[in-house]
Amino acid sequence: MYFEKVDQLNIVAIIQARMTSTRLPGKVMRAVMGKPLLEYQLEQVSQSRFIDQIVVATTRNSIDDIIVEQCNKLNIPTYRGSEDDVLARYFEAAERYKADIVVRLTSDCPLIDPEIIDQVISEYVRVKGKVDYISNTLKRTFPRGMDTEVFTFKALKTANEKAILTRDREHVSSYLYSHPDKFRLAGIESTEDYSKYRLTVDTIEDFNLIQLILEEIKTYKEYFCLRDILELFKKHEDWFDINSYIEQKEL
């Protein structure tokens, strides 16, 4: 993996999280073995070699106090902003924590692989100055649940100033990848196509699968990567059927 740390370049991972998700309310704080999914994700993200700071961006709603309390216990900084204008919330969090490079993650990815995060970051740094946005989602070859987007604070600021469509305010990066005329885009693809696997949490079926994976993998791995998860699917072929029929919610 290529990576050259740039002096004084602040790489901030911002995880958006809220309790009022529509399909599975409270999913970020659903517990497996006594620990909320958000904590598992924070543990995984903390293994990144390149992220300087992790921030959880939640809302000002009192229902999300529990997210802030959990982050306080784990010494993870938080930012509270608009529930509906997620783009503004994200921009304000990035501004507050002086991000030069923003790593966008969402709280429905508790199994996210830190090696994949670092792959996207390192590719951004390798082509630094030539792209504004890079992700592993422009063409899906990684499983859902491994989604990682990296973009400049400048690009985020522009999006926050220019985006007017409801979709672009509710979904942080849609203005960026929907305007290739304004932003230089690049994508990362897996060496093999793993897009059939669904490792995100949006429904109870998703949660049931994630629970099985965590209950087994945590017996022998403190931290894990996608390779470890794929080995479990080889061992438990029926696990794939638990949520394979779930349709991803469209933007």
Under CATH, the topology can be stated as Spore Coat Polysaccharide Biosynthesis Protein SpsA, Chain A
Mean pLDDT across all residues, rounded?
A: 95
CATH class: Alpha Beta
Uncertain residue ranges: none
Q: Strand count, sense and closure of the main sheet?
A: 7 strands, mixed
Structure description:
Helix 3 runs antiparallel to helix 5. This protein is α/β, with parallel strands linked by helices. The longest helix is centred in the C-terminal third of the chain and has 14 residues, at 204-217. Helix 2 links the parallel strand 4 (53-59) and strand 5 (78-81). The protein has one domain (11-242): Alpha-Beta Complex (Spore Coat Polysaccharide Biosynthesis Protein SpsA, Chain A), CATH 3.90.550.10. The chain has a seven-stranded mixed beta sheet with strand order 5-4-1-6-8-7-9, sandwiched between helices. Strands 2-3 form a two-stranded antiparallel sheet. The protein has helices at 37-45, 65-73, 86-96, 114-126, 153-162, 166-170, 174-177, 204-217, 226-235; strands at residues 11-16, 31-32, 35-36, 53-59, 78-81, 101-106, 133-135, 149-152, 185-187. The mean pLDDT is 95.
What would a concise description of this structure say?
The chain has helices at residues 37-45, 65-73, 86-96, 114-126, 153-162, 166-170, 174-177, 204-217, 226-235, and strands at residues 11-16, 31-32, 35-36, 53-59, 78-81, 101-106, 133-135, 149-152, 185-187. By secondary structure, the protein is of the alpha/beta class. It has one domain (11-242): Spore Coat Polysaccharide Biosynthesis Protein SpsA, Chain A (Alpha-Beta Complex), CATH 3.90.550.10.
